[in-house]
């Protein structure tokens, strides 16, 4: 009988200890470290073997320690390391880490922050150069399409080498390609778009070749058209648009068809405000050979005006976060190249995930990815 009581007592004590252990909260992630690498940051923390931990939650913000939001959930394993490949290289990033325990969270780690490294070009840039800078060719699994959309990020306003505001004429073209078999077209954002009145502001353009007929364009409120011959016969629509640092979505699609041709409209949306703006439309004559935009078009950048003349290429970073043709087709491969004779490699194109494409330029930018397929 005494032996039985002893066994029962031991069992009760074991249950009590087990209950006390379950009430012990999971400790917060400890010894969280951050290491700066080229275009990335590496996070490390001590591995916690507590079986109650479901996953590790990484919270993140850019530019401020305020309003960190959930960025990544990863398995709780002995590696305890995460490499964050970043889209903006000239920013500070802030992180904190939680353990997820059922429906609850542990106490957070201390907030840590760092900026990624950027390889530095120690060559001396030439002053006053203008022209095309870097190029990415998009190949899709579909040969032609009637809608294309780029989601992109402007990471910074263009600046000079000393950090002051830059006044150069910069153009970021999102898709230069062929429409309806033979008609070239292009569209994108510019820093110095001149109105007929002479006023110069930021803006958006959409142009096509092989005509000077003004009946082939339709402008939106506040926009205007152009018909000229200094690039060969072309027409275009223009509109001031005060783009700034942030995320946007831009694209063209076929809106209608008449007896002459197909009308394509250009729209841009500010992601943070969800406000979409119509820029205008162009008409493209019909062809019996093919309809729509051809695969293989280019996203590229251009420095077309230097103000003042005796300065090097400005700092600017713009990234294409994703590209879709006809809503569902993503590029199967991207070929990149650079200007053969200008800017002395003071530009770079890279990807972090074989989806995004980052375009860097500046008087200290070092090329780390040579011409060729960015992915294939």
Would you mind describing this structure in some detail?
This protein has 376 residues and is mainly beta. The protein has 2 domains: 92 residues, Sandwich (Immunoglobulin-like), CATH 2.60.40.10; 245 residues, Sandwich (Jelly Rolls), CATH 2.60.120. Helix content is 6%, strand content 49%. It has a 9-stranded antiparallel β-sheet with strand order 16-17-14-13-12-22-9-24-27, with no helix packed on it. Strands 15-20-19-18-11-23-26-25 form an 8-stranded antiparallel β-sheet, with no helix packed on it. The longest helix has 22 residues. The relative contact order is 0.17.
List the helices and strands and how they pair.
Elements: H1 2-23, E1 33-37, E2 40-44, E3 55-62, E4 69-75, E5 81-85, E6 93-101, E7 104-105, E8 112-114, E9 131-139, E10 144-145, E11 147-154, E12 169-179, E13 183-194, E14 200-209, E15 217-219, E16 224-228, E17 234-240, E18 246-257, E19 261-270, E20 275-285, E21 293-294, E22 298-305, E23 316-325, E24 333-338, E25 347-350, E26 357-361, E27 372-375
Antiparallel strand pairs: 1-2, 2-5, 3-4, 3-6, 6-7, 6-8, 9-22, 9-24, 10-21, 11-18, 11-23, 12-13, 12-22, 13-14, 14-17, 15-20, 16-17, 18-19, 19-20, 23-26, 24-27, 25-26
